[in-house]
């Protein structure tokens, strides 16, 4: 179908198509906060010439500037217009409703007369006395009154039933003539001018974007701990929760999930000039009571130098209090790549149906069989429990988006966690909760005190406090623990008079000493000290990526990396000394 040639003049023929009835959705591309819909109309043009196609009942939230119209057939598209259909003045009554109202009035009047007759009969029976009614006529009067009452009761019941029937029919008729609530969500209309070269079949394709549609990723992660291999099996079930409230249902549509996030008005930020200058002292202005000398110059004592408060109010040390320019606000977004692309797309298998109800509908994207290295971490000084964690390698070609995950270990639900954005062949840490089969005992600390005399003066006399901490790890599993990290700490001196020395394990700081708080030196690489029997010691953080070696040990934190055989125990020892002058009160011990 062409869109360039100028059509000759013809009297236009108007054709009205209803979106939901006369078309089908052939594609839905769902982004984080909007959806792109492709809707196809197939219809016949009875005559050649100018036709005005009116497509009604499009979503009210349709973003008009995103509408594109394409077509196939012997015709030319030459103009497209979109408008929001205003509410029409709709009738509040109908012929049938007027008839039912008349019937209801008649039945209501008949029911009132019947009830009045029953009341009159009761009043008549109540007025009978022996003075006015002979005893011989009593039976005949009562029989006739009873028959009349029965007839009136039957008529009253029939009239009430008829009244209920009429009310029900009126309610149905009111519902029929009432505008359906969903029509408020389908008020957009597209007008398309078409010139047909000949009569025949024509296909019109509408492509448009709508908000109120979103999807998010979530996961089920199932870990198998029964294997004796070095890497455990992990099944990651990648799911999508789709929600849409666009006004139109998506019935039997192909659904494609997009990971990109559209951004609007995002430009490269600008670096403004960064100027520095010498701070000028404030200019002193004399008061009215001050009299200058004959030369007109103020005396030297009157030229005030800036006080400490003046400097404090001056702001920055360099450049004075020059106002800074406001930084341009940027739009936060996350780009996730897949196989080197900027974004990734997921095609949901088959055709799906998603009603316009604002509820989440879940679909499985893929099930991935991955491998993970298990590790255990414990900080027994705070809590003697072992926290299990898995480092999972995304060996698939799927980009993992950030989302909540339900964690199952050996078929049992353990915890909920959150998966960070992970590209293909990257890894991420997945906490698996506590492992009760690893039992750690943090024994009471042992303390000792020793004084040593100085070489010359009594004031040089020192007192040394020695501390010993023992930690026992019991692996009750039937398999060995390949990597258990136990974290502890020693005090960190904040005073030059107090010296803290690590004795066991014999880790050293950057300057080659085991004393905390000394002067720094140069580092070669983080130290890993082997203690035998599958146990090594290091400063905490030494095995982390991009760690600054100069910061290791400055806070007194260290850890042991252990391999614990099945059904076995190991003991870890921590010993340190705190030395200070005699009679020094040490806070924190």
TrEMBL record:
Residues spanning the signal sequence: none
Pfam families: DUF4139, DUF4140
Coiled coil residues, start to end: 149-176
Keywords: Coiled coil
Region annotation Disordered: where it falls in the sequence: 299-326
Chain ranges of the DUF4139 domain: 206-581
Domain spans labelled DUF4140: 28-126
InterPro entries listed in its UniProt record: CHP02231, DUF4139, DUF4140
Domain of life: Eukaryota
Protein name: Mucoidy inhibitor A
Organism: Mycena chlorophos (Agaric fungus)
């Amino acid at each position: 179908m062409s869109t360039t040639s100028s059509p000759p003049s013809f009297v236009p023929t108007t054709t009205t198509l209803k979106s939901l009835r006369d078309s089908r959705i052939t594609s839905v591309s769902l982004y984080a906060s909007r959806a792109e819909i492709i809707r196809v109309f197939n219809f016949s043009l009875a005559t050649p010439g100018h036709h005005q196609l009116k497509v009604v009942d499009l979503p009210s939230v349709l973003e008009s500037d995103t509408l594109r119209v394409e077509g196939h057939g012997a015709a030319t598209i030459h103009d497209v217009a979109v408008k929001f259909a205003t509410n029409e003045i709709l009738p509040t009554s109908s012929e049938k409703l007027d008839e039912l109202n008349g019937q209801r009035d008649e039945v209501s009047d008949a029911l009132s007369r019947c009830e009045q007759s029953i009341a009159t009969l009761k009043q008549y029976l109540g007025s009978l006395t022996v003075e006015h009614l002979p005893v011989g006529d009593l039976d005949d009067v009562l029989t006739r009154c009873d028959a009349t009452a029965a007839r009136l009761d039957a008529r009253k019941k029939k009239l009430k039933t008829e009244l209920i029937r009429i009310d029900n029919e009126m309610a149905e008729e009111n519902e029929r003539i009432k505008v359906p609530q969903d029509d408020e969500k389908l008020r957009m209309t597209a007008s398309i001018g078409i010139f047909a070269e000949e009569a025949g079949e024509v296909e019109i394709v509408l492509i448009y974007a709508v908000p109120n549609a979103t999807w998010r990723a979530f996961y089920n992660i199932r870990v198998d701990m029964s294997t004796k291999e070095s890497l455990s099996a992990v099944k990651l079930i990648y799911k999508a929760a789709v929600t849409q409230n666009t006004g139109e249902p998506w019935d039997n549509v192909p659904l494609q999930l997009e990971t990109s996030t559209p951004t609007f008005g995002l430009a490269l930020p600008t670096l403004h000039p960064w100027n520095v200058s010498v701070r000028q002292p404030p200019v002193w202005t004399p008061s009215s009571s001050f009299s200058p000398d004959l030369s007109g110059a103020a005396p030297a004592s009157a030229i005030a130098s800036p006080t400490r408060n003046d400097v404090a109010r001056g702001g920055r040390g360099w450049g004075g209090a020059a106002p800074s320019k406001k930084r341009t606000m940027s739009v936060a977004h996350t780009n996730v790549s897949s196989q080197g692309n900027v974004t990734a797309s997921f095609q949901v298998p088959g055709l799906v149906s998603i009603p316009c109800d604002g509820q989440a509908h879940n679909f499985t994207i893929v099930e991935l069989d991955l491998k993970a290295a298990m590790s255990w971490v414990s900080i027994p000084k705070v809590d003697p429990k072992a926290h299990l964690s898995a480092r999972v390698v995304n060996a698939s070609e799927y980009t993992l988006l950030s989302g909540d995950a339900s964690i199952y270990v050996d078929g049992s639900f353990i915890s909920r966690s959150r998966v960070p954005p992970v590209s293909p062949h990257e890894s991420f840490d997945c906490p698996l909760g506590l492992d009760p089969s690893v039992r750690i005992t943090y024994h009471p600390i042992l303390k000792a005190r020793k004084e040593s005399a100085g070489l010359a003066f009594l004031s040089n006399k020192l007192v040394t406090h020695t501390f010993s901490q023992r930690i026992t790890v019991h692996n009750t599993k039937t398999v060995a623990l390949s990597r258990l990290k136990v974290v502890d700490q020693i005090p960190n001196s904040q005073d030059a008079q107090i010296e803290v020395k690590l004795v066991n394990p014999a880790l050293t700081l950057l300057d080659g000493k085991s004393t905390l708080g000394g002067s720094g030196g140069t580092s070669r690489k983080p130290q890993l000290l082997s203690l035998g029997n599958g146990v090594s010691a290091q400063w905490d953080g030494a095995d982390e990526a991009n760690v600054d070696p100069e910061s290791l040990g400055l806070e007194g934190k260290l850890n042991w990396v252990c391999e614990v055989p099945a059904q076995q125990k190991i003991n870890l020892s921590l010993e340190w000394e705190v030395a200070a002058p005699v009679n020094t009160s040490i806070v924190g011990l």
